[in-house]
Amino acid sequence: MIRQAKAILKNVFGYEDFRPLQQEIIQNVLNRKDTLVIMPTGGGKSLCYQIPAMMFEALTVVVSPLISLMKDQVEQLTALGVGAVALNSMMSSEAYGQNVSRILRNDVKLLYLAPETLMMPRTLAMLNSRRVDCIAIDEAHCISEWGHDFRPEYRQILEARKQFPQAVCIALTATATPRVQKDIQNCLNFEKSNAFIASFNRKNLFLQIVPKSDPVRQAMDFIHKFPSQPGIVYCLARRQVDDLAAALAKSGLSVKPYHAGLTDNERRQNQEDFIRDDAQIMVATVAFGMGINKPNIRFVLHYDLPQNIESYYQQIGRAGRDGLRAHCLLLFGYSDIHKIKYFINQKADQEKRVAALHLKTLVNLAETDQCRRISLLTYFGERYTQSRCDMCDNCTSGDPVLSDLTIPAQKFMSCIKRSGEIFGPDHLIDILKGARTQKILKFNHQELSTYGIGKDWSKQQWFFLNRQLIQKELLTEDIEHGSLKLTSKAWEVLRGKTLFLGKMLMETKEFIPPNTDEPSHDLILFDLLRQKRKELADSSHIPPYIIFPDKTLIEMATFFPQSEETLRYIHGMGAVKFEKYGLIFLDIIFTYCQERKISEQPKSIIHPTTAQERKHIRIGKAFNGGQLIADMMKENKVKLSTILNHLYQFVAEGNDLNPSDEFLSLSTLASEERSLVFETFNRLGIERLKPVFDALNEKVCYAELQLLRLYHISQKSR
Predict the structure, then answer these.
(1) What is the pTM of this model?
(2) What is the CATH number of the domain that holds 681?
């Protein structure tokens, strides 16, 4: 089974190897064992159910929370020649009915729908009329009350499972703490032994957190370091989205806003513009991004503080899905903490406690002076074994400079003690700065000896000192009310027995230039390929990355493949993509390289050696041994074009092809048309079919050209 899965990986998706855990997960699902998958955003979760779906005889139902996610997945699978449809409330009744008809006549392998749609009586009746082999639950953290995005309707999926007892279930998510993982397994009655937890470490993401000082200027300075490259800016409030988007647009940047205050049509159009590279930057609230699989997002900027680490991790995970370096910057301001606390206080008691704890861990991440990956991965229950990652600001900026802050620390802690250890930092700082607030006058705190002794420090400095005292465990903070209390360690500093060393303010670290470690590629050729990709995508009404991701174009502009064989070894060049687009891009590369006398560059790849993997050798030998092409198609369960591609690759590696009239018997062209094709081969050569296709005024399809080329080659062997 895994051999077939690997063949699908290469021929359909164009990837040479599985990513970590993918093969084990796919094997587990094919063995019909319920499976929990915890894998980071961009780690390849979708393939874990898409490949089994293509191997199962019956239908795979994919439960997904967002229409945008369904649309994206269906478009990508359709472009790869895989039968996939969605059913959702945004579809016209005609489109909905057409998709239902395709399902009923067994014309699709994957059905995407929301949990609400799944539980509709008409949906369940339709699914009960045919076999369901697999139920895939995407964004499975939505099923857990301890998750950051709990959705009660996800709990109903268990009832749907009971109606399809023969179907294996796979639940997938990128953001799940150990507690959430356990809750998902309990809710779905999974065995704990069938959990596959990949590393949460996205090594290609550079993490940086700096103090928010002049946020609009900071945002512009950062974005200008990514000319013509896509990115997302996250804001907390709708008004902030509109104001920042307007400011960025005024500076000449290509930008669109996205938030719940826009109409459905406005949101849909802005999202389409971003996905299709018609807009460079999306400024958005958290309403944007879930299910967006745009692989070439080069930066994510948090203009405001997210509400928890799960949200932060999920949002930065939208960057660098192509595996190339991406930059994640968070502007950290203490005023943002108060805004989030305001929203938290609107929640019920239990939700309030959970949300406050989540916020506290995020603030700790922002304030830590150790490797940020240690704090981030520890939160998700993963131990980071290295002392530094060299892909975060703390690891690349050297050791922090610490000052003796014993006296300010004594002032702050003395104020806590003298006011009764029942107040939060806002009120305490007001006392230290000598403010005349209603609260101070109510409690007569203007009479305290600590009143006004901290006027020489700014409010921001006192807040930062407060956070350091908590981090160093000299203070504890009540999660629900925010009041501060002294610990036993605090008395050592208060009595002058121990110095307190800290930082005056959170440091503003220099922006790290992006993509400094990426392999160099020909930027002019890359731009030509990108223009052609955009043209093809627009004509097909699909996002450009569905044609090819940036990584594929970068490899083309790095290794300059100038033959069909070498082009096939480019990342993402599966058989379907090669048949649809390969020769178009090969023609651009060949022309560009001929004009500039650029030679192919060898790509360091591991050439397959087993009989199964070197299928073109086996196909070529079988043909020379007398096996008919029709029989090879049936035996290998592939199309005619795939057999022809294998035979040409067999010849391109220097092997002879026995003369055969079978190629002519499979051709539908008249003899005069064939003669014209052969004349064109003699005039233009057979290495590339695109010039031949153009010379024949696009009247002879590529499938015919492939047949006649092989006949032409075989006749020369007589």
Answers:
(1) 0.72
(2) 1.10.10.1390
